[in-house]
DUF1611 domain-containing protein
Amino acid sequence: MRAPYLLFLGDTVLQGTDKTAAGLAQWRPELCLGQFRLPGCAADVGLPDMDPVEAVARGAQTMIVGVVNVGGFMPENWQASIIAALEAGLDVGAGLHQRLGDIPAIRAAADRLGRTIHDVRQPTRGFSVGNGAKRNGKRLLTVGIDCVVGKKYTALAIEREMRARGHDADFRATGQTGLMIAGRGVVIDAVIADFIAGAAEWLSPDAAADHWDIVEGQGALGHPAYAGVTLGLIHGSQPDALVLCHEPIRTHLLGLDYVIPPLADCIAMNVAAARLTNPAAKMVAVSINTSRMSPDEADAARTRIEAEIGLPCCDPLRHGAGPIVDALDLPKS
Amino acid sequence: MRAPYLLFLGDTVLQGTDKTAAGLAQWRPELCLGQFRLPGCAADVGLPDMDPVEAVARGAQTMIVGVVNVGGFMPENWQASIIAALEAGLDVGAGLHQRLGDIPAIRAAADRLGRTIHDVRQPTRGFSVGNGAKRNGKRLLTVGIDCVVGKKYTALAIEREMRARGHDADFRATGQTGLMIAGRGVVIDAVIADFIAGAAEWLSPDAAADHWDIVEGQGALGHPAYAGVTLGLIHGSQPDALVLCHEPIRTHLLGLDYVIPPLADCIAMNVAAARLTNPAAKMVAVSINTSRMSPDEADAARTRIEAEIGLPCCDPLRHGAGPIVDALDLPKS
């Protein structure tokens, strides 16, 4: 997709649904020019507000739908904004299950104006079923107690810290936002169910012995809607190291009447699953998302979890990802 | 699909890949006229051998591709046989991931001849993501130690036995063969990964308190390629009762270098997964596939497993499904 970007936030009011826009603004700020919000929008990723016409005047090339609602469908009242962006001179990118290119009015406008639509959630290749064979190289997978808890940010922060220390590490995107940030990957929840593990095997291929793929996790093993994706991703990634992502103040799965089990149970469940394809898999650290907590609360949570679980714990955005990378106990490079 | 059927077995040599043909011959014999085998074919579902021309002369309406290889792709050398069937006057049905209708030569032949192609593995509707909310009515799900172990046959035998006893029970198909047998269902491994649990929720909807959906299981939680599908199906089905399907002489997963864990571990893993969405879930029986064992071996396995596990055990095709239905402890109807 051609940068710079205008990030479309629609009229979203639900926590966490702006994660595509927030992820791009956090990890690729140099590509993000502004945000475009409709009346009533409760999201704000901290960029200047502008509409498509103003964004084009400032040099924007592509408007990205930065909000992904549950199920990945697009509210009808966003169509006019998408078409306005095309008419203003922008390409449009999105990570919804529903393809923008399949919506007749949007397709027609893009064709008429000669603009490009990027539906990044659609796999652009076929996959094989998994084979469960051990691959060379090392892999780290972030797993979580729930969705929207920090699995992508944690993986990106680990990649950054490992590279800063001179290690050979690649972030491997498995979601639409991660893919937009990294420019490659596979949107694992959009592949045909039979090929989840096979797609994950493809994503982190055979590599040199000291190479690390840092794989972005998806969903949660204890989530009634998404655990299948999570399990296939765990099996296909055959991680050597797992990092559990947690939000200390969360008690229930987002939007569901499901209590989050104790951390120790989450850890045991994920490690047991990972050991099917990699008997050496172990949980090395807990990554906490403390973005809705004060510094004191964050530090207290960190201390409490380290004592309770006996693993290093940190918020990679607040404390840095150093403790997680230390826990990998890598040879100095 | 219009019956009667000619079942195409290709030149398959791998155990278990003829399960669509075998399932139809076993459960819908009144619809199956013959089998069409290429030189070198090692499969035999016990029907008269005939080619498409002869099948048409005897009244066949549709040729069904009765073999599904790993990954669901069609070998190129089968194309000529499919086209020969179309030219002889037959429609063609298949349950492959790869759509027959997407293969240009087959599509062209069908269009030219005015025949219908049925690609039953393609979902004909969209699904929502799962919501994990408890539904009324009762559900039984067959799970397994591996693929191709008897999950579909067990579910069909339970439906037959329950109906014979006057209970309100419906087989719910989740695979291409089950769907061809039942005439409805969802091929769960062909849905988009994000919707596995949601599709399973759709398949066994809210029902009367004494209604039982008997859901066909898929894959295995301990299978490195397919466990994601299995887990989503377990969560979405929210079974009250689970039946573990087993082949006593199998030591490794089919075609893989993975040892099958002890039955007690398989049971614990499946029950733990099911309790996420139905805390009352329990394993009620073990169904064994003794088709490659002598009567004495089958009876010995049954006795041994009952002693080891403490649950009723039977081969529904050899001993009848009575012991499994007894284990549900239903009120007399």
